[in-house]
């Protein structure tokens, strides 16, 4: 059997971060089993569709590296992969169910249904359709009618969830769900089952909010005489207060993290651990490592807390491990958006070496290295370290200037080599690290807290490094 999973978002707005995790788990499961990962756009609710949402969803998946094998823009032999392009299929299947008695036509007006719900709520009942049209004949042409699922009475509906084990529902608690609306569009429940069957989906991995709908889906598979896929319902993502992560609580839109410049592997690493952990205490994984380790049966049942602190820590670790040249390429849009000038790609790669260990996302590039992009201002007193004097700071800067002016230009391309040379010189001349390096760092960066003097010199280059020392000497 070839494993086939799908991520089926609705283009009704920005992709939720929980939706991205669902896509990731489907991707990991398919790749772990050398299967197929599919994208299907579920746009049957036309009234809620947001222009551009479909394109944004597909763009996010590509940007973070969740490449799919079949989908609306890449094709496949089970397409089309957009539900609004499959309406005739759903109509035929709905009519088949109505014909064999597993569903029925309903002509109840919106007014009657509203009145029915109000009366049920007054009695304290859970609102559900009362079955008034269960035994009605098929309506004539021109009548507004929907097709409803005929839920059998007195049944226990049971299925095995890959995460939660055996789950049971009583049919008395299951509504006669609308399957086909009067406008010819299917509801999620019909379209979902028809598409999953025709697209040969073997595993349905989705959020736990769909768990109460699963008995309806089990009944639909039975009614069609189809084998149901394996279901796996993922735990909710919670905010740090313990509530459901929502748009109101912030941090909910996946695109926000892409726009802020979190590295794709860092974001996926973080999301993978929201409800699942591969092994031991290790928390930093590449995408390939996640694929190799992923086990859907080890996903937790309880909700997973979304911690920005944890995301930033994981993101920072991935920044440290990344190749500086690769980071530089990814950072270009962020650097240019801030209007920060840079001479060439090689210099930008050196900048990223300095940013590693400081920035956790690409939108932070330049926050601690602004001294490398323009002029600096600072008070002369900042040049003098504690337990030192103005005269000593001036002396150390003069001597350091002379040494750095004699240092070859190529040494400035690597802060580690420059560090070895300068520290050896300081030791040989008994100048003291603190007394020498503090005024040098302030002269180059203009800040009390900043990257080290060797990193600053690497970014500034020899000529500008010497110029800034001269400016500092004039201040003193």
UniProtKB/TrEMBL annotation:
The UniProt record lists the keyword Zinc: yes
Residues engaged in binding ATP: 247
Entry EC number(s): 6.1.1.17
Cofactor note: Binds 1 zinc ion per subunit.
GO cellular component: cytosol
Function, in words: Catalyzes the attachment of glutamate to tRNA(Glu) in a two-step reaction: glutamate is first activated by ATP to form Glu-AMP and then transferred to the acceptor end of tRNA(Glu).
EC primary class: ligase
The entry's keywords: Aminoacyl-tRNA synthetase, ATP-binding, Cytoplasm, Ligase, Metal-binding, Nucleotide-binding, Protein biosynthesis, Zinc
GO BP terms: glutamyl-tRNA aminoacylation
GO molecular function: ATP binding; glutamate-tRNA ligase activity; tRNA binding; zinc ion binding
Database matches in InterPro entries: aa-tRNA-synth_I_cd-bd (IPR045462), aa-tRNA-synth_I_codon-bd_sub2 (IPR020751), aa-tRNA-synth_I_CS (IPR001412), aa_tRNA-synth_I_cd-bd_sf (IPR008925), Glu-tRNA-ligase_bac/mito (IPR004527), Glu/Gln-tRNA-synth (IPR000924), Glu/Gln-tRNA-synth_Ib_cat-dom (IPR020058), GluQ/Sye (IPR049940)
Sites where the protein binds Zn(2+): 106, 108, 133, 135
Ranges that cross the membrane: none
UniProt xrefs under Pfam families: Anticodon_2, tRNA-synt_1c
Glycoprotein listed as a keyword: no
Motif ('KMSKS' region): 244-248
Residue ranges constituting the Aminoacyl-tRNA synthetase class I anticodon-binding domain according to the UniProt record: 327-473
Residue ranges annotated for the Glutamyl/glutaminyl-tRNA synthetase class Ib catalytic domain, each copy included: 3-313
PANTHER family (alphabetical): GLUTAMATE--TRNA LIGASE, GLUTAMATE--TRNA LIGASE, MITOCHONDRIAL-RELATED
Family matches, as CDD domains: GluRS_core
SUPFAM superfamilies: An anticodon-binding domain of class I aminoacyl-tRNA synthetases, Nucleotidylyl transferase
Family, as annotated: Belongs to the class-I aminoacyl-tRNA synthetase family. Glutamate--tRNA ligase type 1 subfamily.
Catalytic reaction list: tRNA(Glu) + L-glutamate + ATP = L-glutamyl-tRNA(Glu) + AMP + diphosphate
Protein name: Glutamate--tRNA ligase
UniProt motif 'HIGH' region: location: 9-19
């Amino acid at each position: 059997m070839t494993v086939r999973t799908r991520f089926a978002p609705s283009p009704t707005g920005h992709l939720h971060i929980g939706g991205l995790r669902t896509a990731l788990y489907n991707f990991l499961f398919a790749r772990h089993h050398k299967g197929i990962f599919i994208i299907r756009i579920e746009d049957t609710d036309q009234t809620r569709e947001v222009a551009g949402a479909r394109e944004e969803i597909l763009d996010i998946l590509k940007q973070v590296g969740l490449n799919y094998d079949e989908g609306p823009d890449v094709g496949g032999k089970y397409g089309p992969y957009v539900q609004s392009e499959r309406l005739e299929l759903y109509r035929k299947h709905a009519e088949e169910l109505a014909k064999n008695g597993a569903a029925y036509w309903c002509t109840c007006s919106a007014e009657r249904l509203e009145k029915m719900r109000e009366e049920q709520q007054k009695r304290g009942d859970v609102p559900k359709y009362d079955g008034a049209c269960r035994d009605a004949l098929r309506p004539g042409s021109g009548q507004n009618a929907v097709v409803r699922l005929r839920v059998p009475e007195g049944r226990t509906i049971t299925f095995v969830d890959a995460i939660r084990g055996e789950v049971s529902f009583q049919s008395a608690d299951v509504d006669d769900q609308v399957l086909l609306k009067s406008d010819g569009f299917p509801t999620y429940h019909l379209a979902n089952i028809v598409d999953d069957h025709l697209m040969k989906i073997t595993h349905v991995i989705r959020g736990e909010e769909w768990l109460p709908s699963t008995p309806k889906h089990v009944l639909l598979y039975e009614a069609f005489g189809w084998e149901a896929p394996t279901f796996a319902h993922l735990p909710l993502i919670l905010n740090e207060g313990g509530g459901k992560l929502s748009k109101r609580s912030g941090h909910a839109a996946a695109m926000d993290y892409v726009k802020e410049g979190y590295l794709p592997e860092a974001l996926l690493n973080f999301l993978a651990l929201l409800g699942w952990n591969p092994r031991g205490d290790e928390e930093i994984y590449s995408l390939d490592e996640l694929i190799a380790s992923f086990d859907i049966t080890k996903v937790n049942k309880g909700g997973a807390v979304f911690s920005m602190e944890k995301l930033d820590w994981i993101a920072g670790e991935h920044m440290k491990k990344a190749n500086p040249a690769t980071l530089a390429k990814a950072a270009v849009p962020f650097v240019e958006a801030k209007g920060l000038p840079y001479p060439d790609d090689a210099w930008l790669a050196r900048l990223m070496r300095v940013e590693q260990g400081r920035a956790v996302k690409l939108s932070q590039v330049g926050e601690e290295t602004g001294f490398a992009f323009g002029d600096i201002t600072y008070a002369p007193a900042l040049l003098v370290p504690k337990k030192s004097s103005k005269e000593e700071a001036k002396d150390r800067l003069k001597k350091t200037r002379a040494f750095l002016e004699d240092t070859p230009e190529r040494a400035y391309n690597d802060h580690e080599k420059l560090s070895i040379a300068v520290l050896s010189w300081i030791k040989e001349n008994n100048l003291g690290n603190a007394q020498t390096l503090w005024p040098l760092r302030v002269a180059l960066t203009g800040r009390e807290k900043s990257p080290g003097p060797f990193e600053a010199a690497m970014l500034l280059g020899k000529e500008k490094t010497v110029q800034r020392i001269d400016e500092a000497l004039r201040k003193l």
